[in-house]
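comment on this one:
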Amino acid sequence: MKTTPVTAADLARSVIAVPPFARARNGAASVSENKKIIDRLSAGGVSTFLYGGNANFYNLGILEFPLILEILADIAPPDAWIIPSIGPDFGKALDQVA
């Protein structure tokens, strides 16, 4: 996963994909299905992924948030930029970054 500072070239090389976050029938995060989504988009040239409303990130609990971030970091291609949303309210955002 890309961790270097963002540049104009980074923004110019890819559209910003807003994929859903896949879950298993029991509600657990599905690593394999999320990897399929990222791999498919990457094969099409996408290198920037924004996880927010479409991924239902605003409803992630405080305890689940770090796990989901770890999953995305683990399955991201080396040159991919993963951008997670926080919030939606200020208090929850503070808890998520703590």
